[in-house]
Amino acid sequence: MDLGISGRRALVTAASKGLGRGVAEALAAAGVDLVINARGGEALNAAAREIAARHGVKVNAVVGDITEPETRAQVLAAAGAVDILVTNAGGPPPGHWQTWSRDDFLRAIDANMLTPVALMQACLPGMIERGWGRVVNITSAAVKSPIAELGLSNTARAGLTGFVAGTARQVARNGVTINNLLPGLHATDRATALDAGAAARDGITPAEAAARRAAGIPAGRYGTPAEFGAACAFLCSAHAGYIVGQNILLDGGAFNATF
Length: 259
Description:
Blueprint: E1 9-13, H1 18-29, E2 33-38, H2 41-55, E3 59-63, H3 69-79, E4 84-87, H4 102-130, E5 133-138, H5 151-171, E6 176-183, H6 189-202, H7 206-215, H8 225-235, E7 247-250
Parallel strand pairs: 1-2, 1-4, 2-3, 4-5, 5-6, 6-7
Helix pairs in contact: 1-2, 1-8, 4-5, 6-7
């Protein structure tokens, strides 16, 4: 399917690997020029070279922590008039509700709520003026079904979900859509870290921990960054203009519900 976005310009954060890299690859395959950001310069610059060579699009890499105002300003300056914004950030560490401090919550909210909000506030006016835009926030399946040990993530991402619910309905008449993608378990560094933590806690190997978690998913496996990226690219496409303010699960059927 031709997504109808060739020649558009996108900003994708946390795009050096994992789900962000999958999204960047899928958008580039559709002919979209990219500005990508991540904290690790070596991985980010390698991703930019590889994506540009593979897909023949322009890829500008800006290294830095997107939660820092200075980095955010640099990224937005490099991005310019973007048509597509995909926000993404690593989740806070797991833990227990008794041990999280105020500072822990503030860091989580800054990374997983306030930073995406700031990026939307910066990019939406231009999209509205031009009469077309797509925003996709990569959040978490925990928004639909909270994960106890990921309470910091549950809290911050729920706040972002609320912001999107109201804002998406205000900008849709201008040809701009905002939606959230809620990943379940995917084969990323985040899943590897969580598997390692479960293995240490339960006295098993990381491979056994991963197999145990995969067995609880109806699809019987973890998702891949490539299939996640393809779903995101469709939401960014010319065909998705009537999908507004939605929270779409990509979890292999793990969330058990009729609706």
